[in-house]
Every structure is written in structure tokens, then in C-alpha cells.
Amino acid sequence: MTGGNPEWEAVLEELRASPRPRLVLVPDPAESPRSVALLAGSFDPITIGHAAMAEAVAGRVELVVLVYSVRTLPKEGPGPAALLLEKERVAALDAFCRARGYAVGLSSHGLLADQVAAAGDRFPGAEIVVVVGSDKLLQLFDPRWYGDVDAALTPMFERARVAYTVRTGDDEAVEACLGRNARWARRIERLHIPPDAAAASSKRVRELLARGDDVSTLVPAEVRAFLPG
């Protein structure tokens, strides 16, 4: 595996202590873009799904940011142990983003609503698009993450649009979720990616690696050097 950058580690520690939402970009753009896409994840590791989502939205915005949060939210259900250390995830993100013309975003908070607020502070006046997979879309509307769902999400949707992809098997759950949250429908749109990318997940990559299977078709070329083996 490849290690991280000590300068990032100092930034991550600073963000961990931040009481308010903050977003630090690497590299930091010299000029403020007119439109920004935020693609958040734990990136353990980056998959072809993440790559396809970033590519799909890249033609719509001036800047694509892959956001890693020091307070990443847990996902439902048990799964394999973490594959990459935090410094390795950030280093892999940096390699991937530099190769593809994107930026790494380091966030102090895990909730998308907080990340949008931080991006709004960083890029006042810019159009913001939040890019999520269907698992993250369902999590976005899960009331367990909020004291008051409307109070959290209304400002977010006033500031940003959401573009979502559907992971294989999630169609019914997504349709039901959007039906329950129709008041925000005009700010939500589907983003289409290839079926093989839609089926990819970091969890599946970790499971396959634990069995000693080949995952080269499931992760971008820039990320393979960071995987064990």
C-alpha cells in the first residue's frame, strides 16, 4: 500500500476539531467556479461506480469534488473491516483526482446538508450539485440522522440540487423514497451510469479482496496501487 501526506493529516486533525462545517480543497482552485459537484463517500476503496458518477456529472459542472469526511456516517448492516487507513484513502483520492482533473474535498462533517453549507461558504454564488448513489439517497432522507428533517433539508435543497444513480436492486426503494419526499422533487434528478458501474460497491470490493479474488475490473487503475496484495 501507499501512504499519505503529512500535510493532509494536519488538515484532517484540524477539521476533526471544527464545530462548524468546513470544506478544504486539494488542489484549491485559483478561481471560484460557477458550478460545483460534490461526490461524497468513505472511498474504501474508490470503485468504478464512483468513477462513473464523477464522469457523468463532469460535463454539467466546472468543478467535480470527491469529498472525504473525517466524520463519515456509518452504513446499515455488518460488513468487512475497513480496508484502507484514512491517510491511504486520501492518498488514493488524490491520485485518482489528479489523473482525472477533479479535486479532493476534505470535510469536517458527514451529513450532506452540512457539506452543502460548507461548500456554499467556500463558493458563494456557485451552483452546487450533490451526486449520490441510491444508498446515500436513502440515507439523505432517513429521519434518524436529524433532529428536524425539514429544518435540515430545506436549506440544503434551496442551495443545491441532487443527482442520483440507482444501484442494482434499489429501484423500488428509491421510487418509494422519492414518493415520500415529493416536495423536493424539482431539485432531484436521476444520473445514468453503465450497469456494471451501478452494481459496483466498496463493500463488494472488500469482500472479494478478503477472499483473495481479483478486483481489477471494479476499481480505477489509479487506485490499484493502494490495495493490498
Q: What name goes with the CATH superfamily?
A: HUPs
Strand content: 15-25%
Shape verdict: globular
CATH architecture: 3-Layer(aba) Sandwich
- Low-pLDDT stretches are none
Helix run count: 9
Number of strands: 7
If you consult CATH, what is the topology?
Rossmann fold
Instruction: Spell the H/E element sequence.
Output: HEEHEHEHEHHEHEHH
> For the record, what CATH class applies?
Alpha Beta
Topology, element by element:
Blueprint: H1 6-16, E1 23-26, E2 35-40, H2 48-58, E3 63-69, H3 86-100, E4 103-107, H4 112-122, E5 127-132, H5 134-140, H6 149-159, E6 160-164, H7 171-180, E7 188-190, H8 195-199, H9 202-210
Parallel strand pairs: 2-3, 2-5, 3-4, 5-6, 6-7
Antiparallel strand pairs: 1-4
Describe this entry's structure for a reader:
- The protein has about 230 residues and is α/β, with parallel strands linked by helices.
- It has helices at about 5-15, 50-60, 85-100, 110-120, 135-140, 150-160, 170-180, 195-200, 200-210, and strands at about 25, 35-40, 65-70, 105, 125-130, 160-165, 190.
- The protein has a single domain, classed as 3-Layer(aba) Sandwich (Rossmann fold).
- A seven-stranded mixed beta sheet has the order 1-4-3-2-5-6-7.
- β3 (about 65-70), α3 and β4 (about 105) form a beta-alpha-beta unit.
- α4 (about 110-120) packs parallel to α6 (about 150-160).
Brief sketch in words of this structure:
This protein has 9 helices and 7 strands, in the order αββαβαβαβααβαβαα.
